């Protein structure tokens, strides 16, 4: 049973929110003391011992790995085999996972092993839980996984850290894993047979990144909606494009929800029509249709991610109840690959939508009376001031890069490891792509926050008031406190970075659940 401060791992169902709370250290991880859970774990490792005592054959225990499964391991070397697995997989490259991403990986792997069908000992689970409890974070290179046979190379850095090897981040500093374990009163682990595979032969990295990506995408959807409402007001646009009766005839639930949020922000359920301009351009009029794709996809993508999070996904599976060793392919990350390829496509479309809205707002041909590039300079000095001209160029660059990354990673399967891994998911690459698309989209969102604040401020100076509900009014007032109106040209990079941080910290409460 969970308390507000502690998340107990015992094989019970976990949610995206649970993993995200662990990554932000809002919940402390503990391994459950429940006797039934601990007995279930013990039976799995006991079955491994029993089969070894009877000279049975278990892949990755009495045989080599992958294509080397025909190689018989001499009995006196079986104990060394798990340590060789993480040793030769120490070939990762690229950036290191962030502390938040690393906590998510540790929690996700612990969740899978706590299902009780991986043949691991309580000692391994306790060591893994201790890393989370004391925030000992293995330095995990992000690149090197093809997303089938598990996230082998990145997870080798977790296995090594459990055994006191390689480098970890502990108390804000890099140190040897053995030193960090000693500081918390724990000895390096000696892996039992099957435990190297159990740690590494799973989908923990891609699933962990997917948990983080999903919550960021959900927030991006909400913020894109709030920004659209503010941009509609700033552009003197038409609220009637979001009329309930209009959306009743195209019943995509997420799309309808976006339209309802826009009506809520624009303070009208029965919008009046602007007879001088019956139809706004698509980036305003079709915003519910664009954002609604992501909004409708999120529940389905959640189900894929949470099912993977709560799965046993290594090989072989140890069924202690039936005393069977089941050889399969649960390490294949196809569901996460599909989820992340789909997510990044829908999120990149948010960036594209907001890029187009910004282009409308800075252009005097389309912004319905606002100054060129939304410059606040007037009179003699107006000639040398360029407002948000460069910011719009940056938004275009970030959007283009996000759109470029929407090529699905999952279609680039490569045959590897002597054609044993001849069809792979590329799920980890898809998840990394999704996070990069989110990063770029959040940059676009931050820039458009500056744009919306500037455009609405200039419109208000002319009209005196704007048709906004309290929630939208509060948002604009908050932005005005954060971002002074741009009158004389100034560098905007510091304000931009502060807003990006605010987005990632989810500073604004956006709509009821």
Query: How many individual helices?
Result: 18
The CATH architecture category of the largest domain equals: Up-down Bundle
DSSP helix fraction:
40-55%
Tell me the count of domains.
Answer: 2
- Arithmetic mean pLDDT: 93
CATH superfamily of the largest domain: Fumarase/aspartase (Central domain)
Please describe the biggest sheet, giving its number of strands, its sense, and whether it closes into a barrel.
3 strands, antiparallel
Measure the end-to-end span: 25 Å
Strand-and-helix sequence, N→C?
EHEHHEHHEEHEEHHHHHHHEEHHHHH
If you compute it from the alpha carbons, what radius of gyration comes out, rounded to the nearest whole angstrom?
Answer: 26 Å
Beta percentage is 5-15%
Biggest β-sheet: strands ordered side by side in the sheet = 4-6-7
Can you characterise this structure?
- The chain is mainly alpha-helical and 513 residues long.
- It folds into two domains: 6-202, Orthogonal Bundle (Fumarase C, Chain B, domain 1); 210-313 and 324-504, Up-down Bundle (Fumarase C, Chain A, domain 2).
- The chain is 52% helix and 6% strand.
- The chain contains 18 helices and nine strands.
- It has helices spanning 16-23, 35-53, 81-88, 99-113, 122-133, 152-162, 177-183, 195-200, 204-234, 244-248, 253-265, 282-285, 287-309, 334-362, 389-404, 427-463, 470-482, 493-504; strands at 6-9, 28-31, 93-96, 137-138, 141-143, 167-170, 173-176, 317-319, 324-326.
- The strands form four sheets. The protein has a three-stranded antiparallel β-sheet with strand order 4-6-7. A two-stranded parallel ribbon has the order 1-2.
- β8 and β9 (324-326) form a beta hairpin.
- α1 (16-23) crosses α9, α3 crosses α6 and α9 (204-234) runs antiparallel to α13 (287-309).
- The chain is elongated, with a radius of gyration of 26 Å.
